[in-house]
Amino acid sequence: MYKHNPNGAASVAAATKAADAARDRTAQYLLAARLEQLRERAAARSGAAARAP
Fold first, then answer.
1. Residue ranges of the domains in the chain?
2. How far is CA 53 from CA 4, 44, 45, in A?
3. Tens digit of pLDDT for each residue in 22-34?
């Protein structure tokens, strides 16, 4: 009878793969959020500079 082994090599490999994928998605999300923030900040500065005499 097969018994699931959560500490087995296959389970550890699957968990490692899932963690790596989650880490990549998180990094991509944080980079996109930061770029959007910087774009908004740059747009606000250029708009303020255009309005200044």
1. 1-53
2. 72, 16, 14
3. 999 999 999 999 9
